[in-house]
Amino acid sequence: MTPYTYADSPIVSADDPAFAGGPIPGAPLPEARVPGGYLSDQLGRGFTLITTNPNLAVPGIHVVVIQPTSEAAQVLGADPNSAYLVRPDSHIAARWFDETTAAVQSALSRAIGETA
Prior knowledge:
6 strands
């Protein structure tokens, strides 16, 4: 069965055209190995930010830092400043090749229906 992609949903942010690969916003998060298990094992109960930038912190969002050279980063098409905002249902709400805290907060507001 092919998983459903919510790419046209009003609560999913537009894709960052800088990505050459990886899952688009609205798609389910693919599985990848990380130290101690799998990427899905690292997700929080609410929204999760998966990033290759260890200095990125967004209040109220569970953050998972992956290594830029890891299998997970390769599967996501990530570089050293990339980030993915993952919804509680494990679908991608937004992604950035060069993330900012403001962009993450804006995408979170969209994903919970505060802005369209």
